[in-house]
Design a protein that fits this description.
With 369 residues, the protein is of the alpha/beta class. The chain has helices at residues 28-41, 73-78, 105-117, 145-149, 156-170, 205-222, 240-244, 270-295, 314-323, 354-361, and strands at 10-11, 16-17, 45-50, 55-56, 59-60, 84-88, 121-126, 183-187, 228-232, 255-261, 298-305, 328-333, 366-367. The chain contains 10 helices and 13 strands. Helix 8 (270-295) packs parallel to helix 9 and helix 9 packs parallel to helix 10. The relative contact order is 0.15.
Length: 369
């Protein structure tokens, strides 16, 4: 980046320069946000894949500290790396060496740095354990978990310790010059459902917003991180009113996103499921576009996919037609689990429907590295 007169991220293969501006924005987060805005304004959509440099459909990095991080399921199919890399930090709060997906945090750290070095974007999700029960993020056995970590709650000190560990990790995300890299952080997602301990039926509106405020205040105000963009991402099962009902506020959120998956089905039912997905996604993107304009926010499809791809042209018949007419900055498909052959949401070399992804990646509107 030119640090004096302009800021630009160049996605080399697409020759996309995101922004030229008269004055350098104040923070790394500002620079990244301006680039995402410029990309969306130019009608470009950055393609992302979860954990793409850490493992793939039939492989995983075995030397976290030294692997060159050159392998990628996406690259092996279309010759380019994803422009956005999603990474998961669940269980970092426990102080261990690996995430809930058994990925070493050192590998996650190095993958984030490599992605930015290549000119790409990084987004982190976080599924911390239930602070009340000690079970997974999916433990919804009590509706007191969020209340227990807010100020005055029995687990408030514990949770603040978790935030300290998270902040310590964020402080290691520095480039060769020792400067913090910009990234997107997407905690407390899919809140309009009730499958996480922070979900709709597990806490009040006020408690959920207070959880966001507490997280933001610690990382932004107490720790002073100025390199984080904050993404709000309910799941795609609500209207505009339902989407905004627990919105943390314009003072916190930079990106309005949502998570939207095609319903799993057998191959016989896949065409109908894909038509339904396309219709619902198009409807949701209409109101998300309006909300983005009203609140001055970038919009994104923060998670999507069809597990196992029982439909041969999901990319070009379901996903692309639904997103192509809307100013989303990026779309991220979920992970290809190396240890679960049936659990994949992105392309991989040798899959019988990989040609459909190549067609998607070849669209002028879709940007990869």
């Amino acid at each position: 980046m030119n640090k004096i007169t302009k800021c630009s991220i160049v996605f080399a293969a697409a020759a996309l320069v995101c922004l030229s501006c008269a004055m350098t924005p104040v923070t790394p987060a500002d620079r990244l946000l301006d680039c995402l805005k410029a990309s969306a304004d130019a009608g470009k959509i950055l393609y992302g894949h979860q954990d793409d440099l850490c493992y793939g459909h039939s492989w995983c990095v075995e030397d976290p500290a030294n692997d060159p991080l050159e392998r990628s399921d996406v690259k092996e199919v279309c010759g380019k790396y994803p422009a956005v890399l999603g990474l998961e930090l669940g269980e970092i709060e426990l102080g261990g060496e690996k995430s809930l997906d058994a990925v070493p945090f050192e590998l996650i750290r190095r993958s984030a740095l490599k992605q930015v070095e290549r000119g790409g974007v990084v987004t982190f999700s976080w599924h911390p354990r239930n602070p009340l029960t000690g079970d997974s993020a999916w433990d919804t056995s009590s509706d007191k978990a969020v209340a227990s970590i807010l100020e005055g709650g029995e687990n408030h000190a514990k949770f603040m310790g978790w935030l300290q560990i998270l902040g310590d990790f964020f402080d290691t995300l520095r480039d060769a010059d020792g400067k913090l890299i910009p990234f997107i952080f997407r905690p407390w997602h899919e809140n309009t459902g009730s499958w996480f301990w922070w979900g709709q039926k597990l806490c009040t509106r006020e408690q959920y917003i207070a959880l966001w405020q507490m997280t933001f205040d610690y990382l932004e105000k107490e720790r002073g991180f100025d390199n984080i963009l904050w993404c709000f991402s309910p799941n795609m099962d609500v209207d505009a009113k339902g989407y905004m009902e627990r919105y943390p506020g314009d003072g916190i959120i930079d990106i309005l996103g949502f998570d939207a998956y095609t319903q799993q089905t057998d191959e016989a039912g896949a065409p109908a499921a894909c038509r339904k997905f396309r219709k619902e996604l198009t409807w949701s993107l209409k109101f998300l576009t309006r909300l983005g304009k009203e609140h001055g926010k970038v919009i994104a499809l923060s998670e999507t996919g069809l597990e196992g791809f029982g439909y041969p042209t999901w990319w070009m018949d379901a996903l692309y037609p639904a997103i192509k007419d809307y100013p989303i900055a990026y779309v991220l498909t979920w992970r290809n689990a190396w240890d679960k052959p049936e659990h994949f949401f992105g392309p991989w070399k040798g899959f019988k429907y990989e040609e459909d992804f190549k067609n998607f990646a070849d669209q002028e509107q879709i940007v990869l590295l």
